[in-house]
Amino acid sequence: MLKTRHVLFTLVATAALAACGAPSDQPSDDATSAAAPAEAAADPYAESEKRMDDAMTAAVGTDVGDNWARKMIAHHQGAIDMSQVVLKLDPSPDVAEMARMTIDKQGKEIEAIRKLLKDGVPDQKAAELYRPVMTDMHQKMMAASGADSSETFLRKMLEHHKGAVAMSDVALRNGVSGAVRTRVQATRADQVKEVAMVEAMLRGETMDHSAEPAAKASVASPAPAPKPTPVAAPVAKPTKAAKVAPKATVAPAPAAQPSPSATASCSPEHHAMGHC
């Protein structure tokens, strides 16, 4: 009898627990879905950052250079997405200008890099060369925050640019060559300038426009025309002296001979003394 009562008590208790639902320490689907908007509100760039990291990880090229190109396209697209986010958050004037410049510049660089992509068998081993610096960049970007959306954007973009420099260093150390190497070097130099610009903006300085693309600057300020090279006047060659015709020799006038009349009238004495 006691055993029967014990069994009935166990069945009733089990039914009661089932009616109460899942244990309180297990989050429900509703709680999980509510956490996503809360995270987005705390970090409005989180979705763009995760999408960029996923795209960079999935991008696999045929060699070291092709991997850099494909991953850098995803990297630049991430900057465009984040810039579009900050423009909706009433940023400071300098940050708004930087965001618009980033959208324009990174879009052009994506098109330039697309022209360098290769067809072939994906090289996962070459892709793995970039994983450490990509992971480091992603973690630092996700952790970066500021006093407002503008400062947070700057701090995240600072790590974003540093990541591009690190990725370019990986490519250069591992023998990337040809047109891709030229593009890697140009991208690295540009990202170094942007790192310096963002650091200055975080110190409270105004945006440095020298970080804008060199091509754009050359259109705005065309190079001065080269000065004409002065042409030296031709040096006259010495001419041979013209032969001078010899002067006509003038024969000396013959001594005057005494006229016959004068001789006839001269007396012998005078003639002997030379007077006539």
Automatic annotation (TrEMBL):
The keyword Transport does not apply. Residues 21-45, 213-222, 232-265 have a biased composition (Low complexity). Residues 1-18 form the signal peptide. Residues 21-50, 207-276 are annotated as: Disordered. The keyword Signal applies. Residues 24-117, 134-202 form the DUF305 domain. Keywords: Signal. PROSITE patterns: PROKAR_LIPOPROTEIN. This is DUF305 domain-containing protein.
